[in-house]
Predict the 3D structure of the following.
Amino acid sequence: MQLLFICFIGIVIGSICTKVGMHFPIEESIFEKSTCSHCGYKHSYIAFFNYFINSGRCKNCGARLRFLPVLNEAFTGLFFALSYYIFGFSYSFFIAIGIICLLMIILISDLNYMIIPDEVLVLFSAYFILVLFFKIGLMSVLLQIGYGIFLFLVMYFIMILGEVILKKESLGGGDVKMMFIFGLILGPLSGVFSIFVASFIALPVSIIIMLKSDNNAIPFGPFLLISLMLFFFLQIDTDFIINLLRF
Ligand SMILES: [Zn+2]
């Protein structure tokens, strides 16, 4: 029952995240209702419930409703429930749902516009710092912030190096800025490892997309965040990696 309630909250918040990712990068109001792409009819705010009440079709013209927002909301709900199942009602739970929300926003905005909005990153950094402050105290938070800055600088250096060697933009600025959040949450070692894991996930997916279409600009942001989520949910920390390296 509790899980169902958390799932419901997740769907509602997922709807907000989808709207932020959809409208914020192009400076539209995020309080738009979901409109039918065919006739412009305004539906209720939450695509998920809308979709199932009207069995996937527009109330006005009968055209098929877009499925991506529904999928996004459903996943947010599901992962919210999963977070609650793993972490209970704890500070870790609030970090977990923060990562999920960030992923959902970036997924939409990076896929549609290849943009990771600075405002979103700043807002979420502040949120994570606040939750971590309550979780581990001031001194530890300052250390984590230091790790964040460190990881950001490392990636920034790699980006500059990549530009010099490849003579073109290799990494998006948004991806590099996002590294602050990785260092903040995971620390330096897990942070670096999560970047490797993200590349491993991204590689096969990119190849498939490149083979199927001419599009060779694939956003890296969502892969990074999926990797961050994986690390946080599986609680892969520095000790775990050191143990792994010993073998
Ligand atoms: Zn319609």
